[in-house]
Every structure is written in structure tokens, then in C-alpha cells.
From TrEMBL:
Protein name: Chorismate synthase
Binding sites annotated in the UniProt record for FMN: 132-134, 251-252, 295, 310-314, 336
Details of cofactor binding: Reduced FMN (FMNH(2)).
Sequence intervals crossing the membrane: none
Source species, domain of life: Bacteria
Gene3D superfamilies attached to this UniProt entry: Chorismate synthase AroC
Source organism (scientific name): Macrococcus brunensis
Protein family: Belongs to the chorismate synthase family.
Taxonomic placement: Bacteria, Bacillati, Bacillota, Bacilli, Bacillales
Amino acid sequence: MRFLTAGESHGPQLTVIIEGLPAGLELTGDAITQELFKRQGGYGRGRRMQIEKDTVEIMSGVRHGLTLGSPVTLIVKNDDHKHWLNIMGVEPIEQSAQEEMKRVITKPRPGHADLVGGMKYNHRDLRNVLERSSARETAARVAVGAVCKILLQQLDIEIFSRVKSIGGVRDEGTYSIEQIKSKNDSNDVRVINDALAQGMRDRIDAAKKAGDSLGGEVEVTVVNAPPGLGSYVHFDRKLDGRIAQSVISINAFKGVSFGEGFKMADMPGSEVQDAIMFDEHGYSRLSNHLGGLEGGMTNGMPIVVNAVMKPIPTLYKPLQSVDIETKESYQASIERSDSCAVPAASIVCEHAVAYEIARAVLEEFQSNYMEQLTEQITAHRERVRQF
Ligand SMILES: Cc1cc2nc3c(=O)[nH]c(=O)nc-3n(C[C@H](O)[C@H](O)[C@H](O)COP(=O)(O)O)c2cc1C
Ligand SMILES: C=C(O[C@@H]1CC(C(=O)O)=C[C@@H](OP(=O)(O)O)[C@H]1O)C(=O)O
């Protein structure tokens, strides 16, 4: 399975083509849209998210609600496009917007792709960079991940996420899958501990008031993935490596770890490796410090991925930068931005992981149609149970 996304942040739409899905998977635009709604929200998001109502339309690859085995095309329209018609090279419908948006952007924001993207593609109007470097693209990636989650659900594999920290307010608790599940439809701060939730909202409010922005840490958990997804035999087949690439490629993500993560550096081996046991259900582990991956392969325990998002680069309190035309220093002023997108980004992270798990499943159990896939995975689960 592979996919491509296309679309500018203020262009008419985002487009996704997913190739390699088996035939016979039940798929509706509404089911995908539900996941997009979760990404759109979250405490700390800016005005743009009040304009959009991300809705998925299926344009190919599905008939009578079932995948055909042919490429699936999804689109998400940008409602904000109508305010940006002029700037996107189409006639404006709102004069005020036209005047405002005619401006060529020559002032790069520190921490965004603006300056280096301009240098690289020789764009002197930095809007040509930011239209595509914007995290608007993550809506397309969530649409792909939503399809993957629907496929994985058919195989009894489930994926959840939660926020672990925002701006230094940390939720250090250990939670059951049921507790994490219970917060999964929330699009507020997506933290399990309600007292900490208020602390995080207060922290976001304070940062916003100060013209600043915040990052944080998220956790994704995958339950019931069969052992043996991924492979130890070659670097680009290692599933931990693939998940890390996918997660780090999300806008503003700067770190990824598995299980106990960076804490492992300070722990003795006896407290890190997960002891093996066997009973009537097959093999399992007495602990899950490694987060479900050994040798680049799933080991049957929950996969636990931790990821760190840096603070949003666009600041109301401006940082020093240089105008690329005048070469003079300036203190940037901005029109709008998110001040914290960690809750939204936790949903993106969950869907990036869902894609990598679904891709690994389809590589391991190559199938043209769903029954073939479920038969193969059932037989595999039984074989490894008795191994
Ligand atoms: C869901 C989400 C929303 C974001 N919203 C903004 C935003 O409103 N303003 C902004 O400057 N950056 C925002 N970002 C982050 C930038 O897109 C990102 O920092 C930029 O593309 C540069 O990439 P890098 O930080 O990975 O180097 C957002 C990221 C995510 C995941
Ligand atoms: C549009 C989305 O996020 C955007 C990501 C983003 C950025 O610079 O990454 C900047 C903001 O866009 P705008 O400049 O239009 O206000 C966010 O709203 C979205 O998540 O769907």
C-alpha cells in the first residue's frame, strides 16, 4: 500500500490517492470524516479551524460502499479557499480579502519552512513555500490513516492516542486501554487526568496571552497487532524505523521513542527487557518496557509510541527575522495562528502510526480481498500461538 497527497493550504482542496487496499473493505466518507473532526479541534487552535469543516468525499475506488481493489481517491475541500481566491491565482470574490492577500510575503518566520524553502525552490514570494509546508496537509494524512484504522478494525487491531504533556504540564499516570479509549473522542486537551486538563488549558491561555506558543508530548497505543509485523533482515523493513520516519515527518514533530523511551538510557537491562511467558493464550511478556517492538518486529504486546512536538513557530510575540528583499531586520506581526496544536497533532500521530501498521500488515499478508486477508491473519495468529 502507498499513498500520495496533494493540495495547498488555501487552494481548493486536498487530494489523496491510496493504492494497494484490498477489495471488499466497507468504506464511507462519513466514517473517515469522523476522524478528521477529531483532528480539527483541540484547545489552543486558531481561527482557521472555525472556518473549516473538514469533510471527506470518496471520488474513486469504492462502489456500493465497498473498496474495489483499485486506487481510492479522497478529497477534502478547503472552506477558507473562497477568501484566498486572488492569492491562489483565481479571481477574488471578496474585495477586502483581495487587498489583504495581494501582499507578496518576503518576511520568513523563524522555525517555519519559509526561508529555506524559498532558497531551495527559488521562490521570492514565500507564500509559494508556506502554502504546502503548512500542516493543512495533515488533514490528508488523517484521511489515509482513517481508512487504515477501518481496515485494522476488521482484523481486531485498534489504535488510540492521548496527550501526555503540554508546555511542561505533564500527565505521568499509567492508564488502562479502557481509560485511554474513554478520552479518544474528546477533542479538547485529550489528557486522561481531568485536573491536569484544566492545568493544560490554563497553560495554553497564559501562553496565548503572552503571544507565545506551546508544544508537548503525545502517546499512541496499538492493541492486538500480531507478532512478526516488520522484519529484522533489512534496515528499511524495520517497523520501529518506519514508524519513527512517519511520525517525525508530521509538521513540528521533533522526537519519537518507544515504550520507556529515553528513560531506558538510565535503566539497567534487567528492568528494560520484557521477560517471556507462555500459557494457553500463547506467548506474552511480564512487562512492556520496550513498547511492543523487538528487532524491528511487533512482539504481540501493545505498541507504545511516544512523540514530541515543538512549539508552533508563528508567534504573536515576534522574533527577529530578515526581510529577503530589503535584507533589513524586522519584528514580524501575524494575522492568525494556532498557539498550541498538540491535541490535534496527537490525532495526526495516531493516524500516521495506523498507516505504518496497515502497510506492514498488507506486506506480511499480501491479499487481494478482505476475506483472504482475514483468513491469513487468523491462521498466522494460531500458528504463532502454538509456536
Ligand atoms: C496540527 C498542526 C497544526 C499546526 N498549526 C500551525 C500554525 O497554526 N502555525 C504555525 O506556524 N505552525 C503550525 N504548525 C507547525 C508547522 O506546520 C511546522 O512547524 C512547520 O511546517 C515547519 O516544520 P518543522 O517544525 O517540522 O520543521 C502546526 C502543526 C501541526 C501538526
Ligand atoms: C489549516 C490547518 O492548520 C494550519 C497549519 C498552519 C501551519 O503553518 O502549519 C497554519 C495555520 O493556517 P492559516 O495560516 O491558514 O491560519 C493553521 O490553521 C489545519 O490543521 O487544517
